[in-house]
Amino acid sequence: MTDFSKTRSLFHMPDGVIYLDGNSLGPLPVNAQQRVMETMKDQWGDMLIRGWNDGGWMQMPRRVGDRVGRLIGAPAGTVIMGDTLSIKVYQALASAIDLVTGQDGQRRVILSDSGNFPSDLYIAEGLIQSLDRGYELKVVAPEEVEAAIDETVAVTMLTEVDYRTGRLHDMKALTARAHAAGALTVWDLAHSAGAIPVDLAGAQADFAVGCTYKYLNGGPGAPAFIYVAPKWAEKARPALSGWMGHERPFAFDLTYRPGDGIERMRVGTPPILALAALDAALDAWEGVDMADVRAKSIALCDLFIAEVEARCPGLTLASPREGTRRGSQVSFRHGEGYAIMQALISRGVIGDFRAPDAIRFGFTPLYIDEQDVVQAVDVLEDIIANRLWDEPRFKQKALVT
Amino acid sequence: MTDFSKTRSLFHMPDGVIYLDGNSLGPLPVNAQQRVMETMKDQWGDMLIRGWNDGGWMQMPRRVGDRVGRLIGAPAGTVIMGDTLSIKVYQALASAIDLVTGQDGQRRVILSDSGNFPSDLYIAEGLIQSLDRGYELKVVAPEEVEAAIDETVAVTMLTEVDYRTGRLHDMKALTARAHAAGALTVWDLAHSAGAIPVDLAGAQADFAVGCTYKYLNGGPGAPAFIYVAPKWAEKARPALSGWMGHERPFAFDLTYRPGDGIERMRVGTPPILALAALDAALDAWEGVDMADVRAKSIALCDLFIAEVEARCPGLTLASPREGTRRGSQVSFRHGEGYAIMQALISRGVIGDFRAPDAIRFGFTPLYIDEQDVVQAVDVLEDIIANRLWDEPRFKQKALVT
Fold first, then answer.
1. A118-131 and A85-103 helices, crossing angle to 10°
2. Coil vs helix vs strand at A344
3. I need a surface site. Which of A214, B35, B78, B219 has the fewest CB within 10 A?
4. CB atoms within 10 A of CB B180
5. pLDDT value at position B400?
């Protein structure tokens, strides 16, 4: 049984804050500062260039990737860290298109849905434009994805958990459907990794990508990850063929030869300080059973929905009511959602706002419990009942929402 | 006049080390630890998600980019930080190809040279293969570049300072030659930024990229930069069209619209801890005159060459003898170069080895002086005179050389 009082003690939380935005940026793990300091002082400072060998820096993307892999059902050696999620989407999509087009030149549809995170769609647009070979990004409603998978589809590019509503796609079923139609799959796990049990191998996913600054608490702009199924790892052509993905980076050959399997998805020099912070953050998952996390996450979300609906009139649930159909977050719609969220934040209840009208709350069992949920709704109830959001200062749009 | 005794005091240097590898990884600036700690504790820890607004995180790639820009002759608002150098090469090359092809569909040659850093060549190979439209990567000897620029060339992709020999290309002359032939230029400043005076605007360079972990001392895997000339900034199509380069990232539109000018070269969520370390490192350049740096760099390199040639038989100079034709590094060839370098490192004189036979020494006036040079040659002389390199432990190849 996972000891959530212990995991809670592993994170720094400012006084007076109830943090329901771990789905956007996870909080600081208390051991991360020390780890980054050691990496700076004992490794960068004292080892200098020797850190690449003696500090184990060169293997960090693979070693940390394996640690992430254990949380998403990926076998050792199938996940590697680096870059940002958008870059990883580009790599996965480019390789997937390449593999399918090699098999069937007629397939030209990249299928996604309107609940996907926009950056994934933007990256696909850019790639398609660069390729200039008649590929088409087809964006359907989330509930229409299954029916839209047909023989024209080269690749499905889907985010498992909808960033706005928390709606969950059935990865296994959609992957099977894609494979039956002859397509490959790219899964974005941004709101899945560390939030819900993921079984990439069991679902037979082809490619998967994700970020680590949300439920994995790696810090602002922490490195992303990419998974390539073993069946494709030696066949995938890396579109971003950087030296760290070369078979022998330090031979300095003039021509590219892809490295073994997942290694070819490395691009440039890995970000060691960021990897050190992430590596420390992943310690929090030792001894944690993802089934326990899922059960508590659903309980917290259910409690939040029940409390809000009982006490906060005017808010409309935007997330699936059924716990097993959600990720680890709940959203409500309200025409004054932006101002309501600013009022909440001013009272220490931190969630976020997603245009046009959703206020979004992430529930992260590692450091959030039932009492936090009830207290957060107490504040929300007060703000709604007394229209405390109706102040000019809460309506000024910030750069980042 | 730059006070180099002051700049020297800004870096942590382990006892007994003479560090001549700042061209590979700059040393730890003493203020960087504190800065990263504050970013972790006061911003990530206490501001949490609010750091994106209140901590100024969202503007960091631009603000830090401007600081780098001042060292490379780039006007404010033309440089932005992010990703790795290989990714930035991909972006610059893709955009440059796009711009030229729009003007002249017959140009199909990407011209580079065999002294370019291999990753740049690999990235070009991968891009060309993805584009699949008959582009060709033509790699000539460095001294043949000028003559090879003709009307078939779409883009020249050159590294100003050769990573192995330190040989310097004439950026201004080659850019003028490329423009006269109707081509665009991508300049890699990996071994230029912070090493020599660079005048991107004066040279009329079109695109430039570089890393910040060498002479800019940003730390292992520090973020890269990209420069786009103002004349192209609003015309360049970003191949890696991620959400941070969108005109309005937080509108979450389903279709991409490039941001203003250089902003469109942002891709994913910026690496805040790494940017904080780099930002601190850039403080060392306050009050530093790059002309002073250049004069001292040439003097240090000249002294090193003279001392080695006088005292270390069997080593052949692999760098240009003329100081103004070199970057801030000197290489010598020797058949046992690898073992010699390992023996040097074991005695605290840290340089590096570049296959097949070059031992490489970087001279960084911010923290290296004449006494270091003489002492380093004392050790090298002893190693050569007494064949101290001739031990099995010095011949075992490490992962990273």
1. 50
2. helix
3. B35
4. 9
5. 80
Confirm whether B37-285 and B289-394 share one CATH topology.
no
Would you say residue A228 has pLDDT above 70? yes
Q: Give catalytic residue positions of A.
A: 117, 188, 213-214, 360
The encoded tokens of residue A80 equal 């590697």
* Nearest CA-CA partner of B171 in B163, B159, B154: B159
Rounded Cα distance between B131 and B100, Å, is 14
3-class secondary structure, B193: coil
Which residues of chain A does B267 touch, with a Cβ-Cβ cutoff of 8 Å?
Answer: 84, 86-87
For CA atoms B57, B31, A275, A90, the dihedral sign is positive
Q: Which residues of chain B have a CB within 8 Å of the CB of A28?
A: 40-41, 44-45
What does the pLDDT look like over A309-331, one tens digit per residue? 999 999 999 999 999 999 999 99
- Give the span between the Cα atoms of A14 and B42, in whole angstroms: 10
Amino acid at A23: N
Name the strand (E) or helix (H) holding A53.
helix A51-54
Mean pLDDT calculated for residue range A284-308: 98
Residues 6+ apart with CB under 8 A from A393: A342
**Distance, CA of B359 to CA of B341 (rounded, Å):** 6
- Please answer yes or no on whether B269 and A211 come within 8 Å at the CB atom: yes
Identified catalytic residue from B66, B113, B162, B188: B188
Check B277 against A122: CB less than 8 A apart: no
| ipTM rounded to 2 decimals | 0.97
Q: Give chain A positions within 8 Å (CB) of B213.
A: 269
Residue A334 corresponds to which amino acid?
A: H
Question: Hey, where are the domains in chain A?
Answer: 37-285, 289-394
Burial of A152 (0-12, 13-18, 19+ CB in 10 A): middle
Mean pLDDT of A195-206: 98
What is the tens place of the pLDDT at every residue in B90-101?
999 999 999 998
Record: contact A87-B222, CB cut-off 8 A: no
Per-residue HEC secondary structure of B224-269 comes to CEEEECHHHHCCCCCCCCCHHHECCHHHCCCCCCECCHHHHHCCCC
Those residues with Cβ within 8 angstroms of residue B102's Cβ, 6 or more apart along the chain or in another chain? none
Beta strands in B334-381 (DSSP E): 349-350, 352-354, 358-362
pLDDT over threshold 60, residue B103 = no
Q: Does B214 qualify as catalytic in the annotation?
A: yes
Please give the CATH number for the structural domain made up of A289-394. 3.90.1150.10
Helices (H), A107-199: 118-131, 145-148, 171-180
Which pLDDT score is estimated for B293? 98
DSSP for A61-113 reads HHHHHHHHHTTTT--TTSEEE-S-HHHHHHHHHHHHHHHHHHH-TT--EEEEE
Residue B104 has pLDDT above 70, yes or no: no
Predicted local distance difference test score (pLDDT) of residue A200: 98
Please tell me the distance from the alpha carbon of residue B336 to that of residue A298, in angstroms, as a whole number.
64
Contact, B264 vs A141, CB < 8 A? Answer: no
Active site residue B35: no
For residue A4, the SS3 value is helix
CATH classification (class only), B37-285:
alpha beta
> Chain centroid to CA A222: how far?
11
Rounded Cα distance between B192 and B186, Å, is 14
**Dihedral of alpha carbons A137, A141, A143, A148, sign:** negative
Question: Beta-carbon neighbour count of residue B333 at 10 Å?
Answer: 17
Distance CA B113, CA B125 (A): 13
Residue of A nearest to B114 (CA): A254
What gap in Å lies between CA B399 and CA B397, rounded to an integer? Answer: 7
pLDDT beyond 80 at B401: no
Instruction: Say which residue the tokens 């050389």 belong to.
Output: B401
